[in-house]
């Protein structure tokens, strides 16, 4: 009898362990249900931006909405977490994501809430610039709203430019002449990396050499072996061979390299301003910004790469309606003025005054009708994931060793053909 | 007629109660270890991007894996890691243990070798990246010493980048191997060694004929752990090169991670995981069988 009891305790303990593991709350501590004051579960891979989201909470709290922030510092771990969360009952109310194929995957599975009405209202009120909506449109409907945007200009070290009496280049030829002067004087003209941002010079040069081909690669209408692409790769190789770029084995932070004059120019998104501020560099004194000239002077419009991160609402999340309301608020002048001021960065909202004069001038220039800029998506988001995976390997190798570009381009085109064939 | 009363057999009761106590452990093993492996094996036969439901595609992922040039590079690098780990961390660990054995204050001699083991692999990677990056501490030191010639691109050129990462791993792992070998040396009975010495054996002869064979049980453990550790080497490589440039320094563990979580090809990542598991288990079994059969022959 006693032994039976002991056996029973053992079996009960086993069951208890299993039940404890399988049950439990959904982990959400959002205070849904109370329309007056709601806390939204918010997940992001931008862990370092927590203080900015705290600042946003102070303002959004006045509207009865705050974010319960959970930040990941590893993007891969974050992406896996979000995907897995959709297999549970704990769908995030709000989360940051990526545009392009990654967002399309979520849309295809019906995992993100539609925001078509929010975009219509935002466009009507002039809260978003023309063209930004394309990044969020799938089959004619919109999903998510822009968390932020980053334009991709060239940052330059003012001291080095003054030392060698260099003017800010306005054409590709002038840019090459500036680089030549710097090389002749033992300086390194450009920064580039063989991982994470290995694709950026390809995007800058191809968008400026043939915008049609750059866009065509995103839809399968152009080939990686097209003459315009080959021309870009050969020019890029020549620049590497001529010593225009820093050795990619230097892993020092790019902001430190630019601020110290180890490189004269760095092609980055406007998020780079914050990184330069962190190392004590001041806009207008230590560094300046100019837009990348078109490689092909016959291309009529100037090209500006724009990167944007979405803020998404999980479809079927506990506070879906409130999260959509928050998304609408996020695009308002009030929210974006707070965001831009706290981050020291540009905003997608054209009504926002950017405090940093260099960035403000850049945004004005890009958005003015006279300047005639064409906005292009960043290559990373614009390219389907399987093609981008191969491209990052090939460009990483190219940046490092500058081999003959043709075998890499042919491999890339083979991957692209495989991918687009599977989409038909 | 009435049925005979069923008598509870105390031995049966005890057997059942003992099974009940084993059940939690069995369930944990099944849920935490067997189930993930079965699930991973299943995924390796599917097309799956982490969303929706996996779609069965037969052996497509294995075919894709074996025909991918990058996979062969991964395989080569993994083999270099296995060989490099046996030569350097194990070899140097043994050397340190033997040299320190029996000398006064040997603990203090072994201690500095052990200190890096307290650091995580990622931290080791960051430290060695600082040393080995272009224009890094090593290049600066060579320039300071007026060493002529061009500096190698330590982390950019393959397979040099794999070799230098094995050196970084050696810096971390040699100490613990020295510690283990040291324990093994201390557990060897003194009498046969003394007898051999009286017969005139010393130095290399003494080590080869007496110490090394008597150290065999511990060598089996150290080498076995090193083989398994090197096959799944990840953290130092991820911190130093992320497998690049391109895929030039990738190992199977990195390929598995990148295919699954970076490229969202869970099926291909799972196929690499299954292949890596099979190789690791096969290598361990083959090595241990060989060691055990050698021991029987002795």
From TrEMBL, chain A:
<protein>
    <submittedName>
        <fullName>Carbohydrate ABC transporter substrate-binding protein</fullName>
    </submittedName>
</protein>
<comment type="similarity">
    <text>Belongs to the bacterial solute-binding protein 1 family.</text>
</comment>
<feature type="signal peptide">
    <location>
        <begin position="1"/>
        <end position="23"/>
    </location>
</feature>
<keyword id="KW-0813">Transport</keyword>
<dbReference type="InterPro" id="IPR006059">
    <property type="entry name" value="SBP"/>
</dbReference>
<dbReference type="Pfam" id="PF13416">
    <property type="entry name" value="SBP_bac_8"/>
</dbReference>
<keyword id="KW-0732">Signal</keyword>
<dbReference type="InterPro" id="IPR050490">
    <property type="entry name" value="Bact_solute-bd_prot1"/>
</dbReference>
TrEMBL record, chain B:
<protein>
    <submittedName>
        <fullName>Sugar ABC transporter permease</fullName>
    </submittedName>
</protein>
<keyword id="KW-0812">Transmembrane</keyword>
<feature type="domain" description="ABC transmembrane type-1">
    <location>
        <begin position="75"/>
        <end position="287"/>
    </location>
</feature>
<keyword id="KW-1133">Transmembrane helix</keyword>
<dbReference type="GO" id="GO:0005886">
    <property type="term" value="C:plasma membrane"/>
</dbReference>
<feature type="transmembrane region" description="Helical">
    <location>
        <begin position="20"/>
        <end position="39"/>
    </location>
</feature>
<keyword id="KW-1003">Cell membrane</keyword>
<dbReference type="InterPro" id="IPR051393">
    <property type="entry name" value="ABC_transporter_permease"/>
</dbReference>
<feature type="transmembrane region" description="Helical">
    <location>
        <begin position="266"/>
        <end position="288"/>
    </location>
</feature>
<comment type="similarity">
    <text>Belongs to the binding-protein-dependent transport system permease family.</text>
</comment>
<dbReference type="InterPro" id="IPR035906">
    <property type="entry name" value="MetI-like_sf"/>
</dbReference>
<feature type="transmembrane region" description="Helical">
    <location>
        <begin position="163"/>
        <end position="185"/>
    </location>
</feature>
<dbReference type="Pfam" id="PF00528">
    <property type="entry name" value="BPD_transp_1"/>
</dbReference>
<keyword id="KW-0472">Membrane</keyword>
<feature type="transmembrane region" description="Helical">
    <location>
        <begin position="79"/>
        <end position="99"/>
    </location>
</feature>
<feature type="transmembrane region" description="Helical">
    <location>
        <begin position="111"/>
        <end position="131"/>
    </location>
</feature>
<feature type="transmembrane region" description="Helical">
    <location>
        <begin position="206"/>
        <end position="228"/>
    </location>
</feature>
<dbReference type="InterPro" id="IPR000515">
    <property type="entry name" value="MetI-like"/>
</dbReference>
<dbReference type="GO" id="GO:0055085">
    <property type="term" value="P:transmembrane transport"/>
</dbReference>
<keyword id="KW-0813">Transport</keyword>
């Amino acid at each position: 009898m006693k032994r039976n009891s002991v056996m029973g305790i053992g079996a009960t303990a086993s069951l208890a362990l299993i039940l404890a593991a399988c049950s439990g709350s959904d982990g959400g501590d959002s205070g849904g249900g109370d329309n007056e004051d709601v806390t939204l579960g918010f997940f992001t891979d931008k862990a370092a931006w927590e203080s900015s989201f705290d600042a946003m909470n102070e303002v959004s709290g006045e509207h009865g909405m705050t974010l319960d922030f959970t930040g990941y510092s590893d993007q891969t771990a974050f992406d896996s977490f979000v995907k897995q969360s959709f297999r549970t009952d704990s769908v995030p109310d709000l989360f940051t994501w990526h545009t392009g194929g990654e967002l399309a995957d979520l849309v295809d599975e019906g995992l993100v809430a539609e925001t078509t009405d929010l975009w219509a209202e935002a466009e009507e009120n002039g809260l978003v610039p023309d063209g930004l909506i394309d990044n969020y449109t799938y089959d004619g409907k919109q999903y998510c709203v822009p968390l932020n945007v980053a334009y991709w200009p060239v940052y330059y070290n003012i001291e080095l430019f003054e030392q060698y009496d260099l003017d800010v280049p306005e054409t590709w030829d002038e840019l090459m002449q500036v680089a030549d002067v710097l090389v002749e004087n033992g300086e390194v003209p450009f920064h580039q990396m063989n991982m994470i941002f290995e694709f950026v010079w390809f995007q800058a040069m191809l968008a400026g050499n043939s915008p049609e081909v750059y866009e065509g690669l995103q839809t399968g209408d152009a080939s990686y072996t097209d003459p315009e692409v080959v021309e870009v790769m050969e020019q890029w190789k020549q620049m590497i061979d001529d010593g225009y770029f820093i050795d990619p084995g230097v892993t020092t932070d790019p902001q430190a390299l630019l601020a110290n004059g180890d490189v004269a120019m760095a092609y980055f998104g406007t998020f780079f301003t914050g990184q330069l501020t962190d190392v004590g560099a001041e806009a207008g004194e230590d560094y300046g910004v100019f837009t990348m000239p078109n490689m092909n002077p016959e291309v009529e419009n100037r090209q500006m790469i724009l990167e944007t991160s979405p803020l998404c609402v999980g479809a079927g999340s506990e506070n879906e309606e409130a999260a959509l309301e928050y998304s609408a608020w996020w695009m308002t002048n009030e929210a974006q003025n707070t965001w831009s001021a706290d981050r020291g960065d540009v905003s997608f909202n054209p009504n926002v005054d950017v405090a940093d004069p260099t960035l403000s001038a850049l945004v004005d220039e890009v958005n003015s009708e006279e300047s005639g800029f064409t906005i292009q998506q960043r290559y990373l988001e614009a390219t389907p994931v399987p093609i981008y995976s191969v491209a990052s390997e090939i460009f990483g190798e190219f940046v490092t060793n500058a081999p003959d570009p043709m075998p890499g381009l042919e491999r890339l085109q083979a991957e692209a053909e495989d991918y687009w064939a599977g989409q038909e | 007629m009435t049925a005979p009363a069923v008598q509870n057999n105390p031995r049966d009761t005890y057997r059942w109660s003992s099974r009940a106590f084993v059940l939690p452990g069995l369930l944990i093993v099944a849920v935490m270890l067997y189930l993930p492996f079965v699930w991973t094996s299943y995924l390796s036969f599917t097309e799956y991007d982490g969303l929706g439901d996996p779609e069965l595609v037969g052996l497509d992922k294995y075919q894709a894996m074996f025909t991918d040039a990058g996979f062969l590079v991964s395989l080569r690098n993994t083999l270099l890691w296995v060989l490099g780990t046996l030569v350097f961390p194990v070899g140097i660990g043994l050397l340190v243990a033997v040299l320190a054995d029996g000398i006064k204050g040997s603990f203090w001699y072994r201690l500095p070798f052990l200190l890096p083991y307290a650091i995580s692999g990622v931290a080791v990677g960051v430290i060695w990246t600082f040393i080995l990056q272009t224009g890094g501490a090593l290049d600066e030191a060579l320039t300071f010493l007026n060493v002529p010639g061009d500096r190698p691109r330590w982390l950019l050129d393959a397979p040099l980048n794999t070799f230098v990462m094995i050196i970084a791993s050696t810096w971390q792992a040699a100490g613990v191997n020295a510690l283990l070998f040291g324990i093994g040396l201390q557990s060897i009975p003194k009498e046969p060694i003394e007898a051999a010495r009286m017969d005139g054996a010393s130095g290399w002869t003494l080590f080869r004929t007496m110490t090394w064979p008597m150290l065999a049980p511990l060598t089996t453990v150290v080498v076995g752990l090193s083989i398994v550790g090197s096959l799944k080497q990840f953290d130092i490589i991820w911190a130093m090169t992320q497998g690049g440039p391109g895929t030039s320094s990738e190992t199977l563990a990195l390929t598995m991670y990148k295919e699954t979580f970076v490229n969202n090809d869970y099926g291909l990542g799972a196929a690499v995981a299954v292949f890596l598991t099979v190789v690791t288990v096969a290598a361990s079994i083959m090595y241990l069988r060989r060691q055990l059969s050698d021991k029987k022959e002795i």
